[in-house]
Amino acid sequence: MSLLIERAGAMASLQDGGRSGVRHLGVTQGGAADWVSQAWANWLLGNSLQAATIEITLGNFSVRAETDSCLAVCGADLKATLDDQPIVPGRSFAIRKGQLLSFAQPREGVRAYLAAPGGFLATPVLGSCATVRREQLGGLHGDGRPLDTGDRLRWSGAPAAPRELPPGQPRSLSPSGPLAVVLGAQIGDFSGQSLFDAFNSDWTVDQRADRMGVRLLGPVLRSARESMISEGVPLGAIQVPPDGQPIVLLNDRQTIGGYPRLGALTPLAVAQLAQCMPGTVLRLKPVALESAQREQRRLLATWQRTTAER
């Protein structure tokens, strides 16, 4: 079973749950930027939550079905259509041989995830097929290239009956409130005014935003630490370079960094930030580590419960 890409845009890529246990080698994790939407797309088809999907950024993407099957779309609303008929994110749907599935421009959010039964097939590199262009790893051909016109995407799972997200589950992860931050080891190096400004001011998502990181524009944050030895940086780390404008590190970040850190976004907040367009105004809020862990466990329990109910 397969899809043929007729229009690839510039930023569509194959992404799964990412690479684990390789950062000591200098290899970043990669994987879906909005990992929550990717997991729901897989859930709709009964896949492993980390199965390979297509991450479609800002639309301009279309594929033609070469076989009858069932697909699922979650995440951003990129005005998806199947033979010109609208497809609402957050559901699976039947697709017939010859039909054209297209994604146009964003209506809400940035990244949509297209899943196929059993996950799209690609040879794993270091345990994952996640595309990391900078490191030339993963993807459909194993060399980190994004998807291109003429590529053929295959899967081997059996079609599933069409299904929608559970009641009450939001279709979009665009943030409706402040993004949660677990404070970091260098928090005491920031001035009191900077800490007040960090959590009581508006921040604007800059145009300089990609899968490596997102720069936030707002009040200038000052740290007493002028230099530090580079250390490992987690997903969602909020580095503050000398210009005082924070950079939130995402999936394709470097593995170490030498700027002081305000803290790190929680995993859910990372997924929410991944759906923010440049120009989006947001706020940050500090949370205790235990609170962030409870939030993560609740989310994982939701998948376990809904899977058991199916």
UniProtKB/TrEMBL annotation:
Annotated region Disordered: the residues are 138-176
**SUPFAM superfamilies from the UniProt entry:** Cyclophilin-like
InterPro entries membership: CT_A_B (IPR003778), Cyclophilin-like_dom_sf (IPR029000), PxpC (IPR052708)
Chain ranges of the Carboxyltransferase domain: 24-302
Bias regions of kind Basic and acidic residues — which residues?
A: 138-154
Q: Which PANTHER family match?
A: 5-OXOPROLINASE SUBUNIT C (PTHR43309), CARBOXYLTRANSFERASE DOMAIN-CONTAINING PROTEIN (PTHR43309:SF4)
Cross-referenced NCBIfam families, in alphabetical order?
A: urea_amlyse_rel (TIGR00724)
Protein's name in the database:
Biotin-dependent carboxyltransferase
Q: What species is given as this protein's source? A: Stutzerimonas azotifigens
